[in-house]
Amino acid sequence: MNRLADLLFYAWFHLDDSDASTLRAVDALCGFIHREPAHGLKWSNIFAADGLAVSSLVSEYGPQELVQRVKSALESTTRHLGMTKPLRAREWGLYKLLLLVLMLPGICCHVKCRRFLVKYDILPAIDDMAVAFSDQQSCWPVMASVFLSIEEHHRSPDGTPGTYESNIEPKLFGCILMDGIFRVYANCVETLPEEGNRELLVEIFKRHPASSAPLRMQYGFWTRAQPTFWYMCLVGLRSAAYREYGKPAHKDILFLEQSWIEWGEKARIDEKSAKIKHESERIRFCHSGNCPRRSGRGGGLVLSDRPLLACRGCGEARYCDKICQKRAWQEGHRESCRRLPAP
Asked: How far apart are CA 331 and CA 189, in angstroms?
C-alpha cells in the first residue's frame, strides 16, 4: 500500500493541473490519507519510508523545479480560502497531500532540495497557509502537523526534546497553542475530543513548556490569547478531566490543564480576572463551533458587537441566529441543554 501511494503521488506530479485525470490521481491518493488517523504523528506511514517517489522526481526534474511547483501549489491552495463556499473534499484532500509532500524524506531532508526551501520561502508559505486555515475546525490537526514537521526538519544539533527552534514563526506558534486548545477543549462541557487530537496536544505541550519559552514565543502566544477564550478553555479542560476521571486520558488532561495555566501566566492572564472578563463578554460569543462570524481577519477569535440570542433551554448558550442554534444542537448542545425540541 505504501508503494501504491508513492506511485499515485508520482502520477499526480506528472499530470497537468487542468487535466481531469489529475483529479482521479489526487482523489485516489486522498483515499489513503483520509483512512489514516487525522493527526500528523502517523501521516508518514502512508508513504514508503525510503522516499523513492520524491527522489525520482528530484532526479528527473531537479530540486529547483520540484520546490518551485510545491511553492506554487501551496499558494494556490491558500487562495481557495477567499472563496465563500465551503471547502470541497477534493480541495481539502489536496491540502493534506501538499503538507505530506513537505513531510516526506525527499523535500525537507533531501540534500539537493534544502537550499531551495530557503530560496523560495517554502516555510513562510506553510506558515501563512496554516494560520489561514485555522478558521476550519477540522484543519487544526493538519496545522499542528505542519508545525511539528518544521521542527523535525530543523531540530537543534543535540535534538533535545522541549527546545525551541529559531525558525518557527511566533504567529504560527501562538496559533497552534491557543487555537488547538480552544478548538479541542472549549466545548468539552458537552462533548469529549478525539483521542488523536488529545495526544497531539500533549506532544506539543511537552515539547514546548512555558518555563523554557523564549520571549518571542511568549509574544506569539500573548498576541493570540484573550482572557475570555483562555478561561473558556480552562473550564473545558476541567470538565473533561472530571468526565475522564479514572480513565487513561485523565493524566493527560491534568497535564494540559497545568500547562495551560502556566502559559496563561506568560500571557499575563490569571484565572480570577479572566473569569470576571468571561462573565461580562460571553453573551457576545456565538456558541456554534462552525459559526462563520466568530473568527476575524487572520483567524483570531472575535466577539460580536452586540449581545446574542440566548438559548431558550439552558439560558447560557448564545447564538447569532437560528442557523447557528441548529448547528450547535448538531454539535452536541442538545445533550447538555434542557431537552427542548430541536430548533
From this structure: 12
